[in-house]
Design a protein that fits this description.
EC 4.2.99.18, Helicase, Ruva Protein, domain 3, Znf_DNA_glyclase/AP_lyase, DNA-(apurinic or apyrimidinic site) lyase, N-terminal domain of MutM-like DNA repair proteins, 4-stranded antiparallel β-sheet, hydrolase, alpha+beta
């Protein structure tokens, strides 16, 4: 599931493949920008802002994309077969003489002036993986609505940018509270620790090919059967702390996982 760390890695791959190169193919397969042609422009950079991707071109243009649940950008060498999905799922094709970047199932794809990027991402809170990370502002944002559930507050990108459903569930487990505990019920030290832990987790996974919150690498999982996450996706399996079966509930269309023994607070 694309979260801040995944999006940052995607931006790095796009940058490595396209930056400094001239586009030989530009194909945006969304009605609003179907006639836009970036061919002949040099790609300046690809960067991430929270869970948003910004690919900038000479001439002051930016292609803004968002992966949401299952979107993806794939990079291919000349002549390589495209394997990211069916043809009707392709939303963008950007090619240079050396590589082709193909965007699949992108729910958000828009071309805008680089000077207008803030219209697309200006609402975001401090970026957990960005150069302007501000933990005090992030904490203040989370606590601005004391009655709001912790899980909902963490997922609101206006509070802090980069957390998705996986990290939300894992952070709540590590804080020993359910996702439905009001933010205002958290002791000040725990609320502060929640923000610092979020930063630590995303930083630790920013270059890992497979995300882990327990510290177990993919090699360790294969060799010893250890789990890479505490609760996410582990419904009915034993909690790694107490062996109580993990529970799952629908949370506004997203699954929320928690341990009924280790995590205090209300549940659905």
């Amino acid at each position: 599931m694309p979260e801040g760390d995944t999006v940052l890695q995607t931006a790095a791959r796009l940058h490595a493949a396209l930056a400094g190169q001239v586009l030989t193919v530009s194909d945006l397969r969304v009605p609003r920008f179907a006639t836009a042609d970036l061919t002949g422009r040099t790609v300046l950079e690809a960067t991430a802002r929270g869970k948003h991707l910004l690919t900038r071109f000479e001439g002051g243009l930016t292609l803004h994309s968002h992966l949401r649940m299952d979107g993806a950008w794939r990079i291919y060498d000349p002549g390589e077969r495209w394997r990211g999905g069916a043809a009707h799922q392709i939303r963008a094709v950007l090619a240079t003489a050396e590589h082709t970047a193909v965007g699949y199932r992108l729910p958000v794809l828009e071309l805008l002036r680089t000077e207008d990027e803030e219209q697309a991402v200006g609402h975001l809170g401090p970026d957990l993986l960005g150069p302007g990370w501000d933990p005090e502002t992030a904490l203040s944002n989370l606590l601005a609505d004391p009655a709001r559930p912790v899980g909902e507050a963490l997922l609101d990108q206006r509070n802090l940018a980069g957390i998705g459903n996986v990290y939300m569930c894992e952070l709540c487990f590590m804080a020993r509270v359910t996702p439905w505990v009001p933010m205002g019920d958290l002791p000040p030290l725990l609320a502060t620790r929640l923000v610092s832990t979020a930063k630590q987790l995303l930083e630790a996974n920013r270059t890992r090919p497979v995300r882990t919150t327990t510290g177990t690498t993919e090699a360790m999982r294969r060799a010893h059967g250890r789990e890479r996450v505490f609760v996410y996706g582990r419904a009915r399996r034993p909690c790694l702390r107490c062996r109580t079966p993990i529970r799952v509930a629908d949370r506004e269309g997203r699954p929320a996982y928690w341990c009924p023994h280790c995590q205090r607070g209300p549940t659905p």
